[in-house]
Design a protein that fits this description.
This protein has about 180 residues and is an alpha+beta fold. Helix content is about 20%, strand content about 25%. The structure holds iron/sulfur cluster (2 copies). One iron/sulfur cluster binds next to loops.
Length: about 180
């Protein structure tokens, strides 16, 4: 990823070239660090939105009829009641979250939906630019913020799949 980081007009915002010719506006503290924490599964207690490309790739890993659902014209990974401890307060979690706290897709297929990479960040579009910030819910629940030396702003390509720049609506507000 390019290390080119330029201040924009917004307070504390920096424009970052994430892929060649593809920029995002980072609207968070540039010193923010992140590393996912073993045993924390909070962001997998929900159904995750699937882009069309995800759906095609998921079809090669799992039966779509069992693992996905449609809500308001959008495809999601289903969330379901689990008998293990890695669930939200409603006893539910993502279809693919195993009892050992690992994602079956990631562990068995070395793949996961694009939206799973974005957490704990959120994406919005402002004046045609992709803006990236930290989800309010992540500030409360994600255990991986500021527990490492790995600066988020230096690794935005790990959070933002390149396909986001191809989508009509890359915003992350839609949830199951
Ligand atoms: S697909 Fe995997 S990484 Fe994504 S929410 Fe489900 S269990 Fe978590
Ligand atoms: S909430 Fe944060 S630390 Fe926990 S699994 Fe998700 S990304 Fe990792």
């Amino acid at each position: 990823m390019s290390t080119d980081q330029r201040h924009t007009g917004g307070q504390g915002e920096r424009r970052v070239e994430v892929y060649p010719g593809k920029e995002a506006v980072a609207a968070f503290d540039p010193d923010l660090t992140f590393e996912c924490v073993d045993g924390c599964t909070w962001c997998c207690h929900h159904g995750v939105l699937l882009y069309e490309q995800d759906l095609l790739e998921l079809a090669g890993c799992a039966p779509l009829s069992a693992s996905t659902t449609e809500f308001r014209g959008t495809d999601f990974v289903r969330k379901e009641e689990k008998s293990h401890e890695h669930t939200g307060p409603d006893g539910q979690a993502c279809f693919f979250l195993r009892e050992d706290g690992l994602c079956a897709l990631h562990d068995e297929h070395d793949w996961k939906p694009a939206r799973c990479s974005v957490f704990p960040l959120s994406v919005s579009v402002v004046d045609g630019d992709i803006h990236v910030s930290v989800r309010d819910s992540a500030r409360e629940h994600c255990e991986g913020l500021n527990v490492t030396e790995r600066r988020v702003i230096d690794h935005l390509d790990a959070f933002l799949p390149e396909l986001l720049w191809e989508l009509d609506d890359p915003e992350t507000r839609r949830e199951l």
